[in-house]
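Please check both lines for our workbook:

___
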Amino acid sequence: MRKKVIYATLALIAAAPALADHPPVAHQGGRLAEAHGHRMELITTGSSFEVLLKDEHDRPMPAQGFGGKAIVLAPGGKAEVPLRPDGDKLTGPLPAGAELAAAVVSLRAGDGHVMNARFRALPPATAPSPALAAKGRAVYEAQCASCHGARLEGQDGWRTQPAASAAKLAPPLDATGHGWQHDDEQLANTIRKGAAPMPPFAGVLSEQDIQAVIAYFKSSWPAATLAQQPKPPAAESPVRPAASGGSGHHAGH
């Protein structure tokens, strides 16, 4: 019977429907997947495998009463990870090298209700330069920490106050904020131009300082969060006007 359950769970990797092009936002910087009318957020950091549960309205659900496992396609092969309640999430040990690996999570509630979710593998992400991040830390501590927090945690109340009130507070810049939902150029523009209540820093910080600050707070993001950050759109090649025939003149003359 146990083998049948494992095979059925693994079959979801090939048979589960593709996720929507624009799935709901994962609030902790993890991967989000639909799970029978609910949602699961998968967070893989260091040696920890964490699953957060959300209802159909994207509200957190208590983890108590749930148990289950994850089948992870680790580099060395399939690995089964037991998941147990730990505060507001379910946790288990992360197999070595599996931070970006595909996984299928199967949970069972106390009433017997089963929720399965499939998480795709993520592409490798490029971590910020350690030297640039170190420079950015000094700039951050001098210019940003008073509002965004010494540990990138944002101002008190950002997560708990109503949206209209939270918008007036400095958000976290670690993976629990929304910075990772924007590409580097969008982040740089926000720093240059400001965004209430943050003043503009163009003329205060050099372009190198701005890039260094971004590298610093990105250095705190897990690999899975870095992999999900949008990339800036590719610059379009300029369109050259077609050469006119029969005039005998060169362009620019």
User: Anything to note?
Assistant: The beta strands are 31-35, 38-45, 48-54, 60-61, 67-74, 77-86, 89-93, 103-108, 114-119. The radius of gyration is 23 Å. Residues 154 and 172 are 4 Å apart (CA to CA). Residues 1-23, 244-253 have pLDDT under 50 and may be disordered.
